[in-house]
Structures
1.
Amino acid sequence: MNEILIKASFRILGPLLLISSVYLFLRGHNLPGGGFIGGLCLSLASILYILATKNSEADSWLRKYFPLIISLCLLGLGVVALLPIIIDRPFLTGLWSSFPIPIAGKFSSVLIFDFFIYIIVAVCTTRAYLDFTDFSGKGRFE
Amino acid sequence: MIKLFPNWAKLMGMDNSIHILPSNLFFASLVFFIGCGVYLYSFTYMKSKDIHSKWTFYLSLSFFTLAMLGLIFSEHLLLLFLFWEMTSVCSFFLIGLNNTKDQVRKKAKWALYTTVGGGLFLLAGVLILAQIGIENGLSSQLAFSIIELGGINGLGQHELFKTALICILVGVASKSALLPFSFWLPLAMAGPTPVSSFLHSATMVKAGLILSYKLLPIVEGQFIWTQSLVLIGSATALLAALQCLCQRNLKTMLAYSTTCVLGLLAVLLGLNQLSSITTFIVFVLSHALYKATLFQLVGYLDSTYKSMDFFELKKMKIRDPFALVIAMLACLSMIGLPLTLGFYAKEYLYIASLKSGYPLMLTIVFFISNLAMGIQAMTFLRVFWSEKTRVKKIKKNSFLLLSPFIYSLVAFVLACFPNATQLNTYLNYVLSDHLGLSVGLKLKLWHGFEYPYNLVFILSILTIVLSIIGSFYCSHKLERTSKWLNEKNDLSLWGPCQKILKGMLNAFEILTNKLVNGNLRSYLIYTLLGYCFLVTFGFSGVAMFKWPDVELRTLELLTLIISMTGLIAATLTKIHYHILINLALSGFFLVAFFVLHSSVDVSMTQLMIESLSLFFIFFLIKASKIKETLEVKESGNIIIAIFLGLVVASFSFLPTFPFDLTASEFFLANSKELAKGDNVVNVILVDFRALDTFGEVIVVAIAIIGVMTVLTKRKKVK
């Protein structure tokens, strides 16, 4: 495989993908974008990074902390979903702050919900990719 | 205002479902009293066990107590079902406590299958009953309430009512070990003794009967219910009476006599008369007290003398005065000697049978059962009754005798002074919720000489005398008959049940081996063909096909043509990478098509997915080191592909597809107002349909765990 191509494209595409992923995630509520798309974009960036730099540390870090991240995110999702129960509203009602924060707009529990989705999608996709292909040395399918 | 505990019960329609009725209080007090003794007993009994089984034991026992109390107090059928299954599951863990033994695990599993399976029948019956309730004008919340259902006048006339009753009857029979499900109770004796004394004699097996007791106002005058309870109950009692005489293991013997008692109780509930209901309450009280005592005594014998076998224990010539006193109190109650609770129970049993519609048959049944239990009690007593003193000292665990002593003492005091201890008043209070305020129940030794009572007196004397004589005769013959019966022990459905399950397992194994043959291609074919057939079947009614009236602009047409070209090229090329590139070409131009249709969100997601799958498959091919060229021999692929393509394409040609736009319009209209977002797609994802997203994300995580288990490199095992 032509690695120069990937390395060169990563230098330009990597930061671009990262920024656009955050951008897609944040503006998702009013314009095209959102947690799912942002997460996929982030996973693309990280896959490209691992491909270009062959950084085995990133690989093993993700392997090690994957269960922790996923379980924390799912727990967070559950907590956010259960929050409205405390003030006697139905499960999963969106809670909105009454005053807007500069730049980010109005803060809400929906944003946190979306954030966890963003992380889960990104981490899961990257992890699946790492599982399918092995960068620590030999291929898996010998 | 912040409310920490919103009214969840109201949300689920379960408010107003826990009722404290007199009879509920009675059953609950039994559970409470026996339960306290069992905990006391377990502290000593479980002392030597390891920490893991201690945790399992106490947790399951506490959960069981909770579930049992819930079951007793709930007058809401769904809630009752919930607690019902909870007791079954707890019982499974408690029976299988000694989980290193294969036999124990098997027996626990059988108890679980029977009780939980019966519970499903109960659920079916409950749902049908609720349906009838709704049709009779109850709201869906009230339709599950036993009290409300009992108030409906035309309930019995409904055509489905009999079906509901039969379903519930199956549930009751399976839980209370009536025929044909009576086999599970002796199997459940594999559990530790405190469990047997609590769950399988005093409380859990009575759950079915408690339910029948609650249902009494509903089943008033329903022949199918009353007759079958009487028949099943009598058959169970007779069979168990025969079986319990031929056991040498004391615990199994007690299990069969419990089954016998359960049968008798079912008969009493089936009769549904004033006298039989009174008897039911008295009998439940006396049985719970003496049976729990006897079970715990067996546990004491087992831990002290390391045996539960009648003959082995007899050979040891046990001399244990304290245990003897307790055994005397319990066994005499079981035989039915005066000044014991069992005496009242027996008297009332005969009175109920003589006053019922079939006096001869029931009297014979009750007589035989009482005789069998009397003989058994005498046999039990003979274990402690030996002529010579044994010199050898044995370390006794006398704490184990504490709670049986309390049980038997309480039973004795209650029986001796029914007036002073307010037992009469209490029993009248208990009976007041079904039978009205003035039952006039009065436990007394002497009823008089007029008609039923003289016969009852004779029968009572006859039972006691015959059981004392019979016990001498039986213990001689016991060894021979027990051998014979142990071979023929599966008189109930135990044998056929085992065969059916084995056959089912074999059939499923053959089916699984056929379907899951390890060939990925065939899995794919099953899935795709199954999908095609289902869709074709589903849309077979919609015959009208119409060309969709969509006008394509030149640019759109161009993207579609390029996309199609990519697909066709992919089918024609033989090299993996080439196929992949062709597919990606097709995919990216499809994205362009979406963009031209100004659906930005879809196109963006599609773009991500296309690029990711390109990455994935590319490196998969690289890593798997397969041959560069594709070798397809099966020509059936084309047919499947064409079939699938036609089915999917036909979606676009369905003109009269009823598409309800209400939801879409609601989302479009309220996106800004309710969820404060302009992007309707994302608002739907994270707000309107956030529950779906919640589920999807969990599915994603589970899928990745699946991928991990399949693909993560394992350590090499030599």
Note: Residues 75 and 92 of chain A are 14 Å apart (CA to CA).
2.
Amino acid sequence: MSGVWIISEKRRQSLELLNIGRQLADKMGTHAAALLYHDREHAEDCVSHGADEVMLLPPLAGEEPAESRIPAIAEEAKKGDPDLILLSATPRGKNMAALLAARLNVGLVSSCTQIDYDEGSKTLVMERLAYGGAAVQKVVCSARPAMATIPPRTYETAMPKSGRQGNIRELPSPSSSAIKVIERKVKAKEAKDISEARVVVCVGRGMEKEEDLTIARQLAEAVSGSIGCTRPIAEELHWLPEELCIGLSGIQVKPDLYLGIGVSGQVQHVTGIRNAKVIAAVNKDENAPIFKASDFGIVGDLYDVVPKLISELKK
Amino acid sequence: MPTVIACFKWVIDEAYIRRGPSGDLDFSSVDYKIGEYDRNAIEEAVRLKEASGAKAIAVTVGMPEAAKGVKDALSRGIDEAYFIADSSFGNLDSSQTALILTEVIRSRIEHYDVILCGEGSSDLYAQQVGPRLAEQLGIPCISFVQKLSLAKDQLVAERRVDEGIEVITAPLPALVTVLPDINVPRIPGVKDTLMAGKKPTAKIIKDDLPPLSEPLVRTISLTSSRMERSCERFGTDAAEIARFVGSLRKKGVIG
Ligand SMILES: Cc1cc2nc3c(=O)[nH]c(=O)nc-3n(C[C@H](O)[C@H](O)[C@H](O)COP(=O)(O)OP(=O)(O)OC[C@H]3O[C@@H](n4cnc5c(N)ncnc54)[C@H](O)[C@@H]3O)c2cc1C
Ligand SMILES: Nc1ncnc2c1ncn2[C@@H]1O[C@H](COP(=O)(O)O)[C@@H](O)[C@H]1O
């Protein structure tokens, strides 16, 4: 047995994984399979988007965490012996992938940004970032199956094709986990997706108070841009949702213009803006690392500079 | 009295890595540090110790130079350390590190209640030593935790998942990986640093361990990803602001 497996719980992510999964399966001369969580409609969707086979896991009882699916998935993987298993690099995807890799005792390439199959040597070569994004690390997995998590939006979603056939089957019920979920707090609102924004105004910790986000919003409006932020703004201060955090542990953006205000420009953040056409920054510290990563930099206090920028932009 | 173990890694400070002439990595002027998020793991161990009278142990696998990191961890309020050192331990993959930690924790630390790891190491950021260690020890793993408390035989944790937050209970012992917003790591004072020298450290060498496993992820190359930018500077007076906006317009990136 062999194959490329994707494991996913969200429609969009499964279709992204199927895109790269199907391409690799074709190159490797094997089939593509999707392992999904109890959604028939989604299963058929995966078939039309390239899955030759769909495995459905039954729903979980209320208190059971996603982890209670690990034993069933591991069993199936031992039986099916896939060449490669792909998951999305979301919090749950990363957690499930690490637990599954541990259970199978195989390598896992986290936050993999590129996968190539070398037909000559029949090896999968994967790329990821190391040292906060300062380095690109090329790796190979030395045990079967190879595993990787892929950040959402690394690949486009697969194209559907009518008339595709696939086998859909149910897997056994999940086991009971020692961990129990006693409460679920769902996020208030989904943030706007900024991974495709043309202009991004990024707020860093140089901003003193949450109320001051208003001036960042005014600036964003003046350049018809969207707001993004650094990790401390999202995660320590909780001023903006986590989906707007740009960088190694957040999202990658590729705007025409990135404008950072009060952003120091540590490598973990700059990694997320590498594909911006123009990088500009306002920071009061002339030695801030962001200036080495910028095309245009203003050395100054954002509270002085941003209002001036807004009025100049309105001219 | 509960026992809490914090796992940390002594890593290269990535801010000092330069791009070499042929796109290679220039490590010639680097400094080292305890991984950013491992400081949160250490702080959480010390916080639990202060809340419940626990003993806080730190464990690290690394090169002999990581002795500095052990002292740093002890100065942050940790009571005792296990230092597993060898000059070949600089480039282990996550599975090898997890196996070494498993071996040492299993054979030398008789009783423990909670193992804390960072969300990810600052250099590899593979985010898997914790889950692998838990799996090998046969204990539950709760990843990406932003709030943690210990009750009698269980822990209660708030963890981040895709949809928001889940509040989890797990029996002890358990392993937890922590997010940076769980706490604010303390900065050790002079007295803490002096005290650190007097605390016990068990040093474990390669010969004390079973033979090292093969890596499951092999690195075939490591190159610099830094990009050159034009780095033009502007001042803050009206003319400079106008020149800045003009430059953006000329590039065609704003209307
Ligand atoms: C494994 C790992 C992953 C990470 N992932 C990410 C990630 O995905 N995204 C991310 O952003 N970070 C990430 N980080 C954190 C990163 O290293 C930095 O700590 C973070 O980016 C810093 O955010 P900041 O620039 O907002 O804050 P700071 O570093 O505190 O910088 C604030 C800046 O504002 C300037 N400033 C202050 N006041 C003013 C003023 N009035 N006017 C103008 N400028 C002012 C200061 O000079 C300073 O440069 C990660 C770290 C690690 C270890
Ligand atoms: N060499 C090491 N020694 C001790 N703990 C480690 C080591 N490497 C990683 N860890 C722990 O495992 C976590 C995840 O590491 P990683 O899987 O490399 O991202 C880190 O935050 C540490 O808590």
Note: The mean pLDDT of chain B is 96.
